[in-house]
Amino acid sequence: MKVPLNKKAALFLVATPIGNLNEVSARTLDVLRSVDVIACEDTRNTAKLLSHFDIHTRTITYHNFNEKDSTKGIIKLLENDESVALVSDAGYPLISDPGYILVNEVIEKGFDIITISGPNAGLNALVASGLPTAHYLFYGFLNAKASQAKKELEELKDFPYTLIFYEAPHRIEKTLKIALEVLGDRKACLARELTKLHEEYHRGTLSKLCQLHDLKGEMVLIIDGCHEKQEVDIDELVKQVMDMAEKGIRAKDAVSEIAEKYDVSKNSLYQAYLDQKNGDR
Ligand code: SAM
Predict the structure, then answer these.
(1) CB 46 within 8 Å of CB 59
(2) How far apart are CA 262 and CA 280, in angstroms?
């Protein structure tokens, strides 16, 4: 085991550049040089990164098609006190990329896991999109089938936070149309070729983005969350207050909590509660 960063063998989850190789950190290079083995999504792809930085660490494959078998092999390496770095073709491993099975097995076996920070396409796009960043949902890829993608978007329709999607260039026009149909004409941003020579951001609304054609390269779609106030059913809220009161919570406290949660007037909810309670007598 050559890794100077940790005495025991460990699994290093190493984020790699999403385009611009200069984004690699000194720590990333240290780890890639020092581990015994680098497990790659595609060894040919990682070879370009390694040769650019003159790194000669042994590589093995770890991709979607061999995740279970490779996991066993990596566990054996760790048991032999050999440290392993897991990398994907770009960005963080496990983020729309393989590695989840491995990480769980490594946790189960009690070895250390160390993340080496680096670029991530979704976050790069989010922070420059101009859309709210306080809360967001990273969704990754929608289903490739349009009917399934539509269902997935239906489920996200009322979600109040910014949505982050990855998409392939041959599907983006269709995805934008479906998003417009299901979510309405929300603010959105399409971020293309991040960190590369032709990096660009198309900011506007979904209908405006639908006018773009022949979009090429790698892209992230950021869509604003739902900001329409949800219709609340006052009877349903009163029922929640009653349930809490039955469990011994003071009715006034229950009203405060529910009113705050659903952003309704405390007085109206308390009055509706009293009406229903008195009506039930
Ligand atoms: N693991 C990666 C990460 O942490 O960002 C994501 C890998 S996923 C298989 C590939 C998708 O990420 C692409 O289809 C695209 O949506 C997005 N992506 C990756 N690199 C990008 C870039 N340079 N510019 C825009 N999007 C990118």
Answers:
(1) yes
(2) 24
The CATH number of whichever domain residue 209 belongs to comes to 3.30.950.10
What's the pLDDT score for residue 5?
55
- Residue 202 inside a domain? The answer is yes
**212-269 pLDDT, tens digit each:** 999 999 999 999 999 987 677 899 999 999 999 999 999 999 999 999 888 789 999 9
Q: Evaluate whether residue 207 is within a structural domain.
A: yes
Please report the pLDDT score of residue 281 as a whole number.
54
Mutate to test the pocket of ligand 1, among 89, 115, 166, 223 (most ligand atoms within 8 A of CB): 166
**Would you say residue 86 lies in a domain?**
yes
Write the CATH number for 83: 3.40.1010.10
Mean pLDDT over 128-157 rounds to 98
Q: What's the confidence (pLDDT) of residue 4? A: 54
The 10s digit of each residue's pLDDT in 180-204 is: 999 999 999 999 999 999 999 999 9
| Residue 97: inside a domain | yes
Number of domains in the chain: 3
Mutate to test the pocket of ligand 1, among 120, 218, 222 (most ligand atoms within 8 A of CB): 218
- Helices assigned H by DSSP within the chain: 26-34, 43-52, 67-79, 100-109, 121-129, 146-156, 172-183, 206-209, 234-246, 251-262, 266-280
CA of 124 to the centre of ligand 1 (A): 10
Query: Could you tell me the residue range of the domain that residue 145 belongs to?
Result: 121-223
